[in-house]
Amino acid sequence: MNEKIEALKQEISQYTVADQDELEVYRLRFISRKSVIGDLFGEMKTVAPEERKAMGVRLNDLKNAAQNKFKELIASLEEQQNGQPDDVPDLTLPPVPDSLGAIHPLTQTQNRVVEIFERMGFNVADGPEIEDDFHNFTALNFPPNHPAREMQDTFFIEKNSGEDKQDIVLRTHTSSVQVRLMESQKPPIRAIMPGRVYRNEAISARAHCVFHQVEGLYVDRNVSFADLKQTLLHFARELFGSETKIRLRPSYFPFTEPSAELDIWWGTETEADRRVTKGTGWLEIGGCGMVDPNVLESCGIDSEEFTGFAFGMGFERIAMIKYQIKDLRLFTENDVRFLKQFRAFG
C-alpha cells in the first residue's frame, strides 16, 4: 500500500488540465467517493492493526494533497479563461449563412433610368433641395399668381413680402436644376436631373409629400419636337420592352410650349390591365415639351438661336407600373417583407 500511495502522490503532483472536461476526469479519479484514494481507505481493513494508525495518517495526507491540487487546477483554468479577450469567436458554433440585402425598388428604378439616358449621351446633374423663388418658379415662367406658389402645394421655409428678398422653399420639382445648369453652361446642354422633391400634399396610396423625379433637358441649335419624341420612344422601349408604344397628348406646363403628357401602351388583355389603365390601355408616366423661349431668355440663352426640349417623370410612378405596386406608401415604410421581394431585381 505504501508503494500505491507514493505512486498516487507523484501522479497528483504532476497532473495538469487544459479544460473543464480534463478537470472532471481528475475529480472522478482522485476526489469522488469511488476514487482510487477511496479504494485505498477501503483496503485499510487488510492492514495489520499496529500499522493502521501510521497508514491512516499517510492516506489523509494523500487525500488532502489531492484536494489542494484540485483547487489549484480550478484556479489555473479560471486564470486562463480570464486572460482571453471576450470577443474571441467560438469556432465550434455553426456558421451563419450570408444574408444579402436587396436594392430598394426606387434606387433600382433610378439606376436603370440613368443608365438608359447616359447611353444616349445625357450627363447627370444635381442641385440644392432648398431653393429660392427665382430658380423654382420665376425663371420657369410661373406667373406671380400661379396656384403652385400658394401654401397648399409648396413648403415655404421663409416667406418674404419685400421686393428685395425672395421666398425660400423646398423645391417642388427638379426643373430648378435645369435653370442652374443653363445659367452656368452654354449650349449645347444635354443632361438629366434625378432627385428628391417636396409637395404639400396629404399622404395616401397615390400621393406623398416627398417623392422622386427625373427631368431631362436638351438645348442646342435646331432641336425639334421630333427629337423629343424619338428620345422618349427609345427610353420607353429600353425600360418597358422593345414593343412599347407611346403617345403624346396636348397639355400645359408654364415652362414648355408646346407641352404634352407622355403615355405608354399597357394593354387591356387582363382585368388588372383594364383596372390600372381605367379601361383605356394607356398609362401616363410623365410630361414633356419644348422649352419656352421665356425660360431660355431668363437663363441668358438666346431663344432666337437655340431651342430645346425638356421632360420629367416620377420614379415612384415608374416603379409602381414596372413592379405592379398599388400603394405609394410602401416605398417609405421600410417594411423588410416588402423590400425583400426585390432581391431578384437588384
Walkthrough of the structure:
The chain is α+β, with helices and mostly antiparallel strands and 346 residues long. It has two domains: 2-82; 105-345, Bira Bifunctional Protein, Domain 2 (BirA Bifunctional Protein, domain 2), CATH 3.30.930. Helix content is 39%, strand content 20%. The chain is built from twelve helices and ten strands. It has helices spanning 2-14, 20-31, 36-42, 49-82, 105-119, 133-136, 175-184, 225-240, 271-276, 293-298, 315-323, 336-339, and strands spanning 123-124, 130-132, 156-158, 168-170, 189-198, 210-220, 246-253, 256-265, 282-291, 307-314. The strands form two sheets. The protein has a seven-stranded mixed beta sheet with strand order 1-5-6-10-9-8-7, with helices on both faces. The chain has a three-stranded antiparallel beta sheet with strand order 2-4-3. Helix 1 runs parallel beside helix 4 (49-82), helix 2 (20-31) packs antiparallel against helix 4 and helix 5 crosses helix 11. The two termini are 79 Å apart. The mean pLDDT is 88.
